[in-house]
Design a protein that fits this description.
With 453 residues, the protein is mainly beta. It contains 3 helices and 31 strands. The strands form 8 sheets. It has a 4-stranded antiparallel beta sheet, with no helix packed on it.
């Protein structure tokens, strides 16, 4: 593996960043970053008073800063308070940058929140729309779960905005020119699954209209109507949703890991067929907080991993959070059949992100400053922490890695990578490239979706 740094961006100060790709028009590519010294979660036991504000910065492909925009003190730095996505909704050939702003200095204001669009070349505000405040009566952790995603219907983009994740949920679909196409309300009293922290977007039924995975229910981006419901009798929240392909049979499946609402007869780890029917399920109890699907077995067989976590009160005086997470167990399965499997790496499985760095169809594993192959052999090292991975740069084969080292953002690629038939098959779907425009919203940048398909 000839793993080399191929892009560099300088974020002022030692700041953490979420990032997304941006089309600047005329074949030009850029990168947008939402950056702060600290990131806040709306969970009551995890929220901190921020150390500084939030800044949006946009760079061109050479690493030159195009513009930056410091948001007001009322904008809390956090992926749930201020999600961001890049979509061309006005049809001019370049993306706008959509984000949730707060026009007041009151950080928890709902009346003053707006969906705003920025020109990706200049940072100029192009539009502003009232953000719905219907989660007002919910607790803080449930109220401030805002989300942006996007898909396509017969070639035209649809931007989806949402509020709420665990109980009451509200979604809106926007078409070309930011014309509202639909609204959908899913109250807590309605049966069926709640949302997830990440949202794949695929045309599962081949009708030319993408569907979004809103938890274990699948909605049309064009109408908001339910296309499939994987688990109508499950009323909980799935932390992980990963669509994946069985290359041997050319079939699509969906892997899910559930967090809450243990229900008799419902398993915590499930794989569903693409038509919404259950393929297999395992494990009766537990909070499955993270997981992924990776290609590790000879013949391009898939491994599914789920990590069982438990939240516990933090009894340490002066601790930085009210509770801490403890890993209890890893579950491993052959993803298509549900058979228990064996697999290990030199680092914890929950701390790595699968990615096909060299393009050969098999997963490598990114974590802890190192990259391992499927046998656990060290292939390369990198400084800092992972920001995101996947097909970030279309001109390079394989998948790439973006890292942050004290505000220095790097993109790394294997210069010897070659796209095999498996990689070409994955890239025949829109989502691997679309995902890179949605990685600054929710947990779309986490280790699960990076390895989808």
């Amino acid at each position: 593996m000839n793993f080399q740094k191929v892009r560099e961006f300088d974020i002022p100060g030692n700041r953490y960043s979420y990032s997304a790709n941006v089309d600047l028009g005329g074949g030009r590519r850029g990168f947008v970053f939402s950056s702060s010294a600290s990131w806040q979660d709306p969970g009551e036991e995890l929220f901190h008073l921020p150390k500084d504000g939030l800044e949006i910065l946009c760079y061109d492909d050479s690493g030159a800063l195009l513009w930056s925009k410091k948001l007001g003190v009322g904008v809390l730095p956090g992926i749930w308070f201020c999600p961001l996505a890049a979509v061309d909704m006005d049809g001019d050939g370049r993306d706008e940058i959509y984000f949730v702003n707060n026009l007041s200095d009151a950080p928890f204001s709902l009346f003053q929140r707006r969906l705003e669009a920025l020109d990706s070349l200049t940072g100029e505000t192009l539009g502003s729309w009232q953000w719905p405040d219907r989660t007002r009566e919910l607790s803080m952790s449930k109220c401030y779960r805002f989300y942006l995603t996007a898909g396509y219907a017969h070639g035209s983009p649809v931007l989806i905005t949402s509020q709420g994740c665990y109980t009451d949920m509200y979604l809106q679909g926007w078409g070309r020119g930011m014309v509202k196409l639909w609204e959908k309300t899913i109250p807590e009293s309605d049966p069926g699954p709640r949302a997830s922290h990440l949202t794949p977007v695929l045309d599962l039924n081949g009708d030319g209209v993408d569907e979004i995975f809103w938890g274990e229910r699948v909605l049309s981006v064009l109408t908001g109507e339910e296309v499939f419901n994987f688990a109508p009798d499950f009323h909980g929240h799935s932390d992980i949703l990963v669509p994946f392909l069985d290359y041997a049979e050319d079939k699509m499946y969906v892997y899910t890991c559930r967090e809450d609402h243990e229900t008799p007869g419902q398993k915590r780890i499930n794989v569903f067929n693409a038509d919404g029917s259950l393929k297999w399920g395992a494990v009766d109890t537990g909070h499955m907080h993270t997981g992924w699907v990776a290609t590790v077995f000879d013949g391009f067989g898939k491994l599914a991993m789920a990590e069982h976590h438990e939240w516990r009160p933090n009894t340490e005086v002066g601790s930085d959070s009210g509770m801490t997470m403890h890993t209890l167990e890893h579950y491993l399965f052959r993803a298509v059949t549900g058979e228990r499997a064996a697999f290990s790496l030199p680092v914890p499985l929950g701390d790595v992100a699968p990615a096909d760095i060299d393009g050969d169809g098999y997963s490598e594993f990114i974590g802890g400053g190192k990259i391992f192959d499927r046998f656990g052999d060290l292939l390369a090292q990198y400084p800092g922490s992972r920001v995101r991975s996947g097909r970030i740069l279309e001109e390079y084969a394989g998948e790439q890695l973006m890292t942050n080292e004290n505000g220095k953002i790097y993109i790394w690629a294997d210069l010897d990578a070659r796209d095999g038939e498996i990689m070409k098959k994955r890239l025949s779907y829109r989502f691997p490239l679309l995902l890179q425009k949605l990685t600054a919203s929710g947990y779309n940048s986490n280790n699960a979706l990076a390895s989808c398909l």
